[in-house]
Amino acid sequence: MKSLKITFGLICLAILASNIVTMSRWNEARGVYDDICYLRQAHLFQRFGLGGIDTDISRNDDHFLEGKLKEIEFPDWNTQRMAPCHTSQPDNKFVLQYPPGTGFLLALFPEGHQVAPLYVFANLIVCVLALLGILAARTLPLTVGAGSLGALASYLMINPAKASYSIAPTMALCAIAGLLTALWLVKAKRNLWLVMSIGLLLGLSVNFRLSNLFLVSGYVLYLGISFLRTRKLAEFVQSSGFGVAFVIGMAPTLIANAINAGSPFTTTYGGADVSAPEFNVSVLGQYLGDPQLGLTALAIGSTAWQLRMGEGGVRQVALIAAGNLLVNLVFFLSHPVFTPYYVVPIAMLTLWSLSFAELMQPVEASQEAPLCERAASVGALSP
User: Fold this and answer.
1) How far apart are CA 59 and CA 163, in angstroms?
2) Average pLDDT for 51-67
3) H or E element at residue 72
4) HEC assignment per residue over 79-136
5) CA-CA distances (angstroms) from residue 95 to 56, 65, 165, 327?
6) CA–CA dist 250, 216 (Å, integer)
7) Distance CA 103, CA 262 (A)
8) The dihedral sign for the CA sequence 158, 124, 303, 216
9) Nearest to 267 by CA among 89, 42, 103, 37
């Protein structure tokens, strides 16, 4: 088994190295409108410090935006009010629609060389967690599972993560949140700091993509139902701590909304992104023909398996994953816009959480009885 671990470890490192080489050749002017807007947010942070959270077009007096749009041959590059990824707001403001987190991270690196370093750091985080999972595996099946997930996660950091600058940091946070979720429910269920750390990370993820708000849904359902069932102070404290940490994590987005849209709870998005949910056959068809389908099926299948066969903390992790998958899939499948990465974060959060939960489960617990006896015992406990 040691040789198998080494093999999987080398595979993950090889994918990481290949990713880094590929990223080092990326062009930051590839013609994608979203890229320009994230880079504009980064430019504002570099120019105004934290004041760069105000993205009104009037702050473009150095013509950075026009320069970037001209670079990709945008037809109306010299007309500010035609800039993509911007929306009109009260008081004649014209602002970026995206939350500030991705731009803030890009601003940590020198202008002109921002995207590749961001992706490299995100890739390193994912690779380290993949290697931790492989090292923690104590049986052959767990080694194969952890190694396969690590290789898959590393590969996804290029495709489809390259489609949007917001996906790379989201994927890194999902991996960390998956580890902490497993630690919380399998190793230290009463640890308030773990619960709050998960809430903080998921709150921070909202600053990268507003739709990451739905990554918290399974946790809210689990904590809320646990409190309603027990009415214990400990459950109330955990739920409250999680909620407070989540709000603190997403505070930059709330502040950005207040500055740019006039209220913390008013979105800067517009058009199809704020339209009412409606199941669309064409959107469903695009998901059915996309690689996301296989990843989603894997996440659903793994969750269903652990709901049926899992025990203790592993099954509780699966309960959170089930709630998360349900809410996220309903939202994205009813959203009028399709992209090749929308459901990737929830699928990876699910797979990381379940994988680490299985790795942390005592080996004795899974070997005390044959598989059929475990299935029977679970069925007997079911209402």
Assistant:
1) 27
2) 94
3) none
4) CHHHCCCEEEEHHHEEEECCCCHHHHHHCCCCCCCCHHHHHHHHHHHHHHHHHHHHHH
5) 5, 12, 19, 29
6) 12
7) 20
8) negative
9) 89
Per the listing, tokens 């214990």 go with 232
pLDDT of residue 366: 47
Give the tokens for residue 192: 């308030």
Tens digits of per-residue pLDDT, 305-314?
999 998 999 9
CA 324 to CA 246: how far, in whole Å? 16
Mean pLDDT for the chain?
91
Domain spans of the chain, in order of start:
33-106, 173-381
Secondary-structure breakdown of the chain: helix, strand, coil percentages, each rounded to the nearest 5 = 75, 0, 25
Locate 25 and state its tokens.
């050749």
330-333-334-335 Cα dihedral, nearest 10 degrees: 120
Its pTM stands at 0.92
Contact 355, 178 (CB under 8 A): yes
Tens digit of pLDDT for each residue in 363-380? Answer: 665 444 344 444 443 343
- Which residues touch 248 (CB under 8 Å, ≥6 apart)? 200, 203
Confidence of residue 282 (pLDDT cuts 50, 70, 90): confident
